[in-house]
Amino acid sequence: MDDMNQKFTSRTWPESPEKTTLEGKNKFLGFWLFLGGETVLFASLFATYLALKDSVPSSDHYLAADMFALPLVFIMTMLLLTSSLTSVYAMYHMKNHNYQKMQTWLLLTVLLGAAFLGFEIYEFYHYVHDYNHTFTSSAFGSAFYTLVGFHGAHVVVGLGWFILLLVRNAKRGLNLYNAPKFFVASLYWHFIDVVWVFIFTVVYLMGMVG
Amino acid sequence: MKNGLKKWRFLPLVAALAFILSGCGEPFLSTLQPAGEVAQKQFNLMMLSVAIMVLVIIVVAIVYVIAITKFRRSKLGEDFIPKQVEGSHRLEVIWTVIPIILLLILAVPTVALTFELGDTQGMEAVDEEGNREALVVDVRANLYWWEFSYPDQGIVTGQELVVPTDENVYFNVIASDVKHSFWIPAVGGKIDTNVDNMNTFYLSFDGEKAQDADNLFYGKCAELCGPSHALMDFKVKTLSPDEFDQWVASMQEAGEQEEPTFDDETVARGYEVYQEQSCIGCHAVSPTQQIGTSQGPNMTTFGERSYTAGILDNRESEEVMAENIKNWIRNSAELKPGNEMPVYNEDTLSDEDLDALTEYLMSLKVYSE
Amino acid sequence: MSTVAQKRGFLAVLWDYLTTVDHKKIAILYLISGGFFFLVGGLEAMFIRIQLAVPDNDFVSAGLYNELLTMHGTTMIFLAAMPLLFAFMNAVVPLQIGARDVAFPFLNSLGFWLFFFGGVFLNLSWFMGGAPDAGWTSYASLSIASPGHGIDFYVLGLQISGAGTLIAGINFLVTIINMRAPGMTYMRMPLFTWSTFVASALILFAFPPLTVGLFLMLFDRMFGANFFNVSMGGNTIIWEHLFWIFGHPEVYILILPAFGIFSDIISTFSKKRLFGYAAMVFATVLIGFLGFMVWAHHMFTTGLGPTANAIFAVATMAIAVPTGVKIFNWLLTMWGGSIRFTTPMLYAVAFIPSFVAGGVTGVMLASAAADYQYHDSYFVVAHFHYVIIGGVVLGLLAGTHFYWPKMFGTMLNETLGKVTFWLFLIGFHGTFFVQHFLGLMGMPRRIWKYLPGQGLDLFNMISTIGAFFMAIAVLVLLYNIVITQVKNVRVGNDPWGDGRTLEWAIPSPPPYYNFKQLPLVRGLDPLWIEKMEGRTEMTPAEPLGDIHMPNNSFIPFVMSLGLFIAAFGAMYQIDWRESGGEEFVWSLPVLIIGMLITLGSMAVRSLKDDHGYHIHKEELMDDTDKGGKE
Fold first, then answer.
1. Would an 8 Å CB–CB cutoff place C353 in contact with chain B?
2. In chain B, which residues have their Cβ closer than 8 Å to the Cβ of C271?
3. Is the ipTM of this complex over 0.90?
4. pLDDT, tens digit, for every residue of C128-153?
5. pTM value?
6. In this complex, does chain C touch chain A, defined as having at least 3 beta-carbon pairs under 8 Å apart?
7. DSSP letter at B195?
8. At what angle do helices C414-440 and C378-387 cross, to 10 degrees?
């Protein structure tokens, strides 16, 4: 509570820096609760998607089984899962007060996330151009792009957040003011990853089965 | 009702309530004067729940009145410090368990009746020749008017549903624009006419009770559907099974007629106006045309309708009916805001033509003279 | 504090309120804006009742009537009832748990401004081409077909204010979990705090489905998506589900805090601890939990089939059990107590039978097969006004009188308060009791007019007369507020004399840091415990020390303003695209600029360190008020 900018060494650095101050504790709990709300948000989107899956106006529209291909989404899944792992390493180093290593691992997380996003944009482009499957072409299209797009938007926000934190704190090291911020951002990133696992299963795997 | 055993002690109360409430409303509209098996069962369930609830209210009222009269500070004095009671496990258990029992008494018949009313298998039953035994009506709800078609009979009516009494009538309901809800309060609860899917349910119309309502029940749209939601009424004409068969036969006969012939010159002119003004584009005058696709109500039985546009009462006399029809053609936009019918003023339709058209429309009858 | 405020200029006060992060000032903001919207919604209700006073009336047109009924419902639920509850939650909950502020003062302010701008946006529809007209439920087929921008105002306005509500919910949850004073265990929290806690949890889980539903409708109406377009494979029933998964918990979000207010009032003015406290807490949590299991009882006639209907019917009936437990515990709290009939207590006493009446019709409605008759008839209108007015609004009026001295340091006039009460109570029952029968007599809800000769005339007239009684009651209340503030007779810590909880242990209004020293809580009703041992104040739990306070900020206002601006862009880009890029060319830039303002202010918030400031011990000792003299 005293001085937020107090300098720490790895010896004086507390066990759970994200929860040491009252502000940090509040942020930590508040963000978990926020993720609870986000879970319901995605649950509603999943339910909508399942209700409208393959629901198209006429037979000349492509369906899920016609479009989705495993190699692409498999690469995307691997990229995102790995980025979750790298953010775990970053938090490990944060807890050990090793700022440089934390920065490195977070940077890697950002790069992997950006690569995922690149593939996702390509994927959407591919569906629009090769299958005429657009946001407005059918209820199926609307539901697909809304669900996957909401996730994509979360990825964009997560990347922006990480970059902003890295830039802002580039030169001032870890303290009890910014440690909760890094921690909460990485929580968000894990959440995004978990949602993707469900998208991979519900949208793609179940979609390919037909 | 089934499962009636447990409810004997409510019977006197139920009977008393039913007696008081049945004074409410009009027999052609009120759910409190049920005129059919479905409405009657729903009414009974309603009375059962009211009885249970009155019981609860009485208990609460007694405790309440004693508490607020006996424990006033003005009586007890400012210095009185009440005992700070924590609570009572026994009481908590009592007022948890007794309500659960009361709710079970209500829940069992509720579930039973919900399944009973949801059972539309009677619709599929066929006789030896493979003809359907029950009467099925396809209901299509449109912005402010209703179409009733009889798929097995191959005929259709608009705005006025004609049904036989004392048998189950099955309904397939759907909406063609926005969601509406199909409700004949005196005969039974409603079902939504969705835009997505067909809903199915049944009603039955009690012959004796129908007489109290002059064989004419009011139907309503019960789901907000736009400006004239309030005016999206329809009427239900009840006939005895024999009369109904005759009605169907005369409708089918009317459908086979080719070119109409007219004895009266005005009526003949009215027929011409009907064609000239393209009324025919939206309003078929044959009971076999445009079923499920028409833009406006079918006019085959227009001269027999007790209401014009579902809202203007024709029953007083022929003159009133003529006035209503003219009023509607001239002022439909004010009478039912937002409806699709074009307005015909003096420029588009002269007074003489309107008179002739009205005569023609009033001549559209198949069943009565 | 407010005497200081009066000496400052108007602009300084305005700036103070625009930037405040103090929960007590945010409470006042919520009270004023919620109160304003309550008057707007009430005016809409009066138009509705005047139109229905006589058959075949033409006081308002059909289209306007649908706008009125939609805006009445939407305004009352989202812009009046909820913000007014937030006003009391903000004013009282931190005090009740012995906290110096909420967990996220900045977000608290953001939540308010989002609600405020969302509400203003929605109401601007009246002046910009017409209000939404598809009912507060805005069922998809009708709302997609609705011409003009009315529904767009609804979707965007609720999206913005809904975000504010979600933020407020999370804030209260964290505040109650993390910020309780030493000794304030969960099972010592006053019932209002408990019900705020449960209602906040409901907000957290109920608002996201609404957010999704609104997004789908937004995409359909503004960006050509096909969620509800049946010809393109869409399905309108999805909206009904999403709306009611939100909508049913929403009514518990409203009623639970009202229950909490009543629990505290009944216990206070009976001079007795709440009977069956543990059962009350358990019942509150159970109602909140069951609230998520029953949404489809709003859809019994949609055609979900008898199995679904039966399950939801039984689940709905189950809610009557914990609610009944509450009713009996309130009765037994009064039993053996020493009841003083102050204005708040009158409301609480009137609430019990009113709410029982609303509750039993709720059970009747739960009976699915019979609900086919009640559904969408005036019976339903009567039912939900009995629970919402008989429960929530009576609770708000009780809370207004009860907490007014704590919020403003002066008491509302008791005589006028009782006049308001009687007028309102008579008007309320007069308006809505007969509507049960109107429904059963075959009157559908949301009808613009009814034709003569259907036996509906008399009861409708009675109902309208009742509405005028309520309107007069509200005018008396307004008069009361004005003369009270003009007279401004200052009161002490515990103006009712019967206070039991922590908020009555500190000055009215409390200093901006609330507690000079955090109090030591030794049981349920901590102030009562101290009173019984002959003390008038709480025992402090800590020595006098520096107090950490958050800085004021203008960013929440700007952030919300950005979304407000962006919403106009999102709406008019429909016209821009329809005109082939000819007209409304400003729409897309406005959308982008609005979003940039919001995102930019978020970035500023993130990049600029904000450590708050400290009030030093010495300043606190100089402060003349009574709290903690050691």
1. yes
2. 73, 80-82
3. yes
4. 999 999 999 999 999 999 999 999 99
5. 0.94
6. yes
7. S
8. 150
